Amino acid sequence: MTELSTWAAAAVAHVERSATGGPLADDLRVTLNFHPDRDFRGTPILRAMAAARTYRSQFETGTGNGGLTAHPGGARWLWEQRIFGGAYDEAPDRERPKYGALNHRGRQVGAAPRFGSAHIRLAREALQRSTFCYPDSFLEPDHFATAHHFDLTTMADRELHSGAVDDLDSYVEAHVHGVVDLARDVEAIVLDPCFRGTDVEAAAHDLPCAVEWHDGFRLHLDTVRAHPDYRGEHVVELAELVAVDGWLTPDVIGHAAATRDHERQTLKQVWHHLARFGAPDSSVER
Predict the structure, then answer these.
(1) Digitized pLDDT (tens) for each residue of the chain, 286 residues in all
(2) Residues with Cβ < 8 Å from 242, sequence gap 6 or more?
């Protein structure tokens, strides 16, 4: 097992003291969803990952697919101070936890496709150095767990099945403490088939882990138009503008993002439509 730094060990121990429930099944996996066709400071993100050989947190990269508040005094920093008992207050950025989700439903697209079409599936050992919460930390939750004391999935599933939360928001957030080494800690990177034969696939094969594929996100504009209240009419209009031959796929949205011609938040909401209604395991007919 990876030896944790003093900061990480203190953080996990702090959560452990208030966690309840029995042990987490060790056949479950934490996944880290992201968009594999985006750039990091001018370098394709998978090339940057291959060079670093680690998966880095928002504190290190300054980028992300959620709120960008990972800085001293920011919302993410203050949340980590509260839940981890101040363990990371003096820690270097590289030591802070990496955020993903527990794939307790066995989704082929990863546990939290809200954050991207690809995911990294971590090895079993990562469970033992992870903490968990429900709902997302953005919502300041009060329910936390560790692999030794875990009782969050029933709550998450109940709220999903009752309609209390949207499918994209229904995941158990995971915080992986310690370095995530791509050679040691990752079972596979899992990509959308729209990236077969592209630079994204070539870059993925340079990573020191297996490359796998899920069945693919794909959504017709007719379905987007059928759900104007999901993210708003302005999002439907942008989807109509960027779609290719009436279809949305991850690479189509990635190409639109690369032009920098569209408002970032609205384009992210176009992705939400695709992730919600166009996933291969979505209950909505495509």
Answers:
(1) 678 999 999 999 999 999 999 999 999 999 999 999 999 889 999 999 999 999 998 778 755 555 555 667 788 889 999 999 999 999 998 889 999 999 999 999 999 999 999 999 999 999 999 999 999 998 989 999 999 999 999 999 999 999 999 999 999 999 999 999 999 999 999 999 999 999 999 999 999 999 999 999 999 999 999 999 999 999 999 999 999 999 999 999 999 999 999 999 999 999 999 999 999 986 543 3
(2) 248, 252, 253, 255, 256, 262, 267, 270
Contact present, 244 and 238 (Cβ < 8 Å): no
Residue 268: alpha-carbon gap to chain centroid: 14
Q: What are phi and psi of 132, to 5 degrees?
A: -140, 155
Place of tokens 């370095």: 179
